[in-house]
Amino acid sequence: MPRSGEWLRVTIDVTPQAVEAAGEILRVAGCAGWESPSPGTVAGYLPADDRGGERVAAIRKRVARLREHGLDPGPARVTAERIAERPWAEAWKSYFRPMWVGCVVICPTWESVVPGPGEALVRLDPGMAFGSGAHATTRLCLRALQEAMDARPRTRVLDVGTGSGILAISAARLGAARVLAVDTDPDVIPIAAANAALNDVSGAVEVREGDIAAAGGETFDVIVANIAPGPVIGIAPQSRALLAPGGAFIGGGIPASRAEEVRQGLTASGLTVERTLQEQDWVAVVAR
Amino acid sequence: MAKKVTGIAKLQIPAGKAMPGPPVGPSLAQYGINIMEFVKQYNARTADQVGTIIPVEITIYEDRTFTFVTKTPPAADLLRKAAGVEKGSGEPNRKKVAQVTQAQIREIAQTKLQDLNANDVEGAAKIIEGTARSMGIEVLA
User: B5-29 burial, b for 16+ CB within 10 Å, e for fewer?
Assistant: First the structure.
């Protein structure tokens, strides 16, 4: 961290063929890395100390000479602006607050909430897997999931495309007897498992890599798939086969403009569409 | 999942040693993502390449979650390795620090072809040659 608490953001505008050389010029000047905001531009940061001006002048000189090395530097423009040191790593926290969806409270780990009677607390830090609760489609599926579970005690739940595990964990916190969470992305499997552990539901939630076929021949009372229109329609026949009599299928990740297409697809697979929930431009379709 | 992309950030940062300061912090703060989580995951994934710069492309989704992919090291890193030098020249026009062969240039061009703005290996090789000369590395004919 510079003593002055300020940085110089140095931007070099050249052509795409000269950016590799421009990045190296920033590195030599002392930048601990750089950004590539567009194909012909790199931007790095230097401490805004006594030597800042001198360093920028040296960068300018080297950029101006790129042509002599057989590279087209295009505009060959070097600009520097002062920016204040900020707690960048903390900035994201202002976007996440405890959130109530029905009787589920989604709460980031740095906040504390005492759940009210009948409320289920789900602790979750948004990270590298989809499903932070900040998207309408996740909230829609969560609402539909609660309604479907209310009607059936000792619920067995299958979550297809679990991502962060938010829906599977919510189901377990709401008292599901068994939750199987599957995802085709191997990267999210350990994340979903870690989130389940964070919420003390590792025993109830099993995470498996794969698509709906990974569920084998098990029977479920509720199947929730917060994915996308095509995949939701695609798994409808298998979902119907895995559902217990009267069980509910919840399809999410569907833009409102494609709701009708999904309803028709589910109907064609032998499911009976019961209702469509909407929030902003997104819908979740519930079928049996 | 309903993954709607809201942003893509491209960074070139030291493998295994990324920190939340610049350029990572100011570049990613605007997207409202968990920067420490990115730093941790990036450093874990690039731990065996410490000493090189590893470019990374971060995709940010509508609910402020993200994923990232790493790319091949910058041409300058590959050139330094091929030439066997720790750093390039501060005065590339006057002071040459090393030499590379045409075969080495072509090999780097091949490695970097997908990341460079070039139509073919010939075009990529021209970019690599220019980059080499701009670092004070001579290209043998």
Answer: eebebbbbbbbbebbbbbbbbbbbb
Pairing of strands A6-13, A77-84: antiparallel
Amino acid identity, residue A238? Q
Alpha-carbon distance of A163 to B44, in angstroms, equals: 20
B17 vs chain A: nearest CA distance in angstroms? 10
Mean pLDDT, residues A12-39: 94
Q: What is the ipTM of this complex?
A: 0.92
**Percent of chain B with pLDDT strictly greater than 90:** 80
Residue B131 corresponds to which amino acid? T
Using a CB-CB distance cutoff of 8 angstroms, which residues of chain A are in contact with residue B111?
none
Residue A190: CA count within 13 A, CB half-sphere: 3
* C-alpha closest to that of A24 among B64, B83, B25, B36: B83
* A191 close to A207: Cβ distance less than 8 angstroms: no
Please tell me if residue B83 touches chain A, with a CB cutoff of 8 Å: no
Strands A156-160 and A220-226: parallel
How many whole angstroms separate alpha carbon B30 and alpha carbon A90?
Answer: 11
The helix (run of H) or strand (run of E) holding residue A190 is helix A188-198
DSSP 8-state symbol, A90: G
Helical segments of B1-141, H only? 24-29, 35-45, 75-83, 102-112, 121-134
B16 touches chain A (CB under 8 A): no
- Would you say the C-alpha torsion A253, A255, A259, A265 has a positive or negative sign? negative
Directed axis angle between helix A166-173 and helix A136-150, to 10°? 30
Nearest CA in chain A to B66: A128
Return the pLDDT at A1. 47
For range B2-30, the mean pLDDT: 92
- B7 pLDDT band (50/70/90 cuts)? very high
Q: What is the pLDDT of residue A4?
A: 54
